[in-house]
């Protein structure tokens, strides 16, 4: 066990984040680990669609370039990388990374670990037969009601199998679905020897991971307080946690980079997507966010300590997706004067024409962007009344694909036979898309069996 500070950088907060951030983090100063978080529920659905079209897809391809950009540091053993970029096809992700290492004559020098076992789809029928109902956490319905439309089911793995991959000698650890903070907790378990019984320490690691899992959102990006005064966002520094063996840690960024690390920026990230702050549940531990102590040390350094945790629940969250019909969204832009009134009139015309054609959908939804659509009723009846321009956005959904496709032909005619001053229309019809609906569930952790491999 070591008592040194472990420095972990958060180089990706989502699939599509700044492609150059990993390199800047690794080259900008001392760093022991680089974690790259790519997954969200909607991302898993997008990746599943990709895999259905091409069995070699289904992972966040950005990771290949990210790892290649820090390859000199990996070859020199100055840093290790953990990424959940495997998505719904971690094997293909690992193959793509290994191919990149081959091209750079680095295969074997840089060892790759692969963590799988999160994909429950091949086992769903056996799990249901064994009494695991996988009830929807919001409705209580058993998964059996959508079994025939199920396209994916992935458990959120914990940090233990990722730490095992590091112990086997992996410098790059790739996984499918794990809880986001696991990418940070795993190196801390590996470095400090933390075990599943160290609830307070695992909770502290979870908080550290939560702070950096959204990338630059912790260093001034998407910050609501005094955002106008946060400088150099064009060169924003991505977050780093400097973690001690007692679980206390400092959030910072490399000197000379843009953005800001302050009590405010860190606090905003702490409360992001946590639900009950006294019971933030992951596969590793239940963390009490109300126990966190923050001390702003100045100079872009904030210290967090005092984190308390309690043992894991013995359950894992499952993120499943199932086919739930089709949708299409069409848009038009109306210019001043009376932009909002024109958009409202166009919406009435469109709905009347759909009715006359006998096209009745499960749902028709209209938004007028620029006239209070974001804030809804809170915007008030006069929102956008004199707006210089607004965007009319109309969407439909239905189980009948042909019906939804017919809707896509009804937007364009409004350009010539509806209200005046249409702009922003380039002739492209609305696109019919299949809806993959989200199904959150819980499963006994003992029913999920992670697999850890050190690849050649």
Rounded radius of gyration (Å): 24 Å
Q: Give the helix/strand class.
A: alpha+beta
Alpha carbon gap, first and last residue: 28 Å
The count of DSSP E runs of length 2 or more, i.e. the number of strands, is 19
Please, how many helices?
13
- As residue ranges, the low-confidence spans are none
Shape: globular
How many strands, what sense, and barrel or not for the largest sheet? Answer: 10 strands, mixed
Give, in spatial order, the strands making up the sheet with the most strands: 11-12-8-7-1-2-3-6-4-19
- Report the sheet-strand fraction: 15-25%
- Helical residue percent band: 25-40%
The number of distinct structural domains comes to 2
Name the average pLDDT.
Answer: 95
What report would you give on this structure?
The chain starts with 5 loop residues before the first strand and ends with a strand. The chain is 27% helix and 25% strand. Helix 1 links the parallel strand 1 and strand 2. A 10-stranded mixed β-sheet has the order 11-12-8-7-1-2-3-6-4-19, with helices on both faces. It folds into 2 domains: 271 residues, no CATH class; 112 residues, Alpha-Beta Plaits. With 456 residues, it is an alpha+beta fold. The longest helix is centred in the last third of the chain and has 18 residues.
Topology, element by element:
Layout: E1 6-12, H1 21-27, E2 33-36, H2 41-53, H3 62-69, H4 71-75, E3 80-83, H5 90-103, E4 112-116, H6 124-129, E5 150-155, H7 160-167, E6 172-175, H8 182-192, H9 199-212, E7 240-243, E8 249-252, H10 263-270, E9 280-281, E10 285-288, E11 293-296, E12 302-305, E13 308-311, E14 315-335, H11 339-356, E15 363-369, E16 389-398, H12 401-407, H13 414-417, E17 422-423, E18 433-444, E19 451-455
Parallel strand pairs: 1-2, 2-3, 3-6, 4-6
Antiparallel strand pairs: 1-7, 4-19, 5-14, 7-8, 8-12, 9-10, 10-13, 11-12, 14-16, 14-17, 14-18, 15-16
């Amino acid at each position: 066990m070591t008592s040194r500070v472990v420095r972990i950088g958060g180089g990706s907060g989502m699939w599509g984040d700044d492609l150059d951030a990993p390199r800047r983090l690794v080259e900008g100063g001392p760093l022991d680990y680089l974690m790259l978080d790519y997954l969200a529920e909607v991302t898993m659905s997008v990746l599943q669609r990709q895999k259905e079209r091409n069995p070699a897809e289904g992972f966040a391809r950005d990771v290949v370039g990210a790892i290649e950009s820090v390859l000199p540091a990996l070859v020199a053993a100055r840093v290790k990388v953990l990424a959940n970029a495997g998505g719904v096809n971690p094997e293909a992700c690992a193959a793509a990374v290994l191919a990149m290492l081959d091209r750079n004559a680095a295969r074997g020098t840089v060892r790759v670990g692969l963590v799988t076992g999160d994909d429950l789809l091949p086992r769903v029928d056996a799990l249901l037969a064994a009494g695991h109902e996988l009830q929807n956490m919001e409705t209580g319905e058993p998964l059996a009601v959508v079994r025939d439309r199920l396209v994916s089911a992935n458990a959120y793995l914990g940090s233990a199998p990722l730490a095992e991959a590091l112990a086997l000698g992996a410098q790059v650890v790739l996984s499918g679905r794990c809880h986001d903070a696991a990418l940070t907790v795993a190196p801390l378990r590996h470095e400090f020897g933390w075990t599943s019984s160290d609830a307070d320490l695992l909770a502290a690691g979870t908080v550290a991971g939560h702070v950096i899992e959204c990338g630059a959102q912790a260093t001034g990006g998407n910050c609501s307080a005094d955002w106008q005064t946060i400088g150099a966002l064009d060169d924003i520094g991505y977050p780093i946690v400097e973690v001690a063996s007692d679980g206390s840690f400092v959030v910072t960024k490399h000197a000379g980079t843009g953005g800001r690390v302050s009590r405010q920026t860190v606090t905003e990230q702490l409360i992001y997507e946590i639900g009950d702050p006294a019971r933030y549940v992951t596969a590793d531990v239940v963390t009490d966010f109300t126990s966190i102590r923050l001390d702003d040390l100045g100079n872009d350094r904030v210290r967090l300590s005092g984190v308390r945790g309690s043992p894991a629940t013995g359950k894992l969250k499952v993120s499943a997706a199932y086919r739930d019909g089709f949708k299409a969204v069409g848009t038009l832009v109306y210019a001043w004067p009376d932009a909002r009134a024109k958009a409202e009139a166009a919406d009435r015309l469109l709905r009347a024409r759909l009715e006359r054609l006998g096209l009745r959908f499960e749902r028709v939804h209209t938004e007028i962007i620029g006239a209070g659509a974001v804030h809804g009723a809170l915007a008030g009846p006069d929102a956008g009344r004199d707006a210089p321009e607004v965007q009319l956005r109309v969407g439909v959904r239905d189980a009948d694909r042909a019906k939804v496709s017919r809707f896509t032909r009804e937007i364009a005619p409004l350009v010539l036979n509806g209200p005046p001053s249409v702009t922003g229309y380039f002739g492209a019809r609305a696109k019919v898309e299949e809806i993959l609906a989200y199904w959150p569930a819980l499963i006994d952790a003992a029913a999920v069996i992670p697999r850890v491999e050190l690849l050649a």
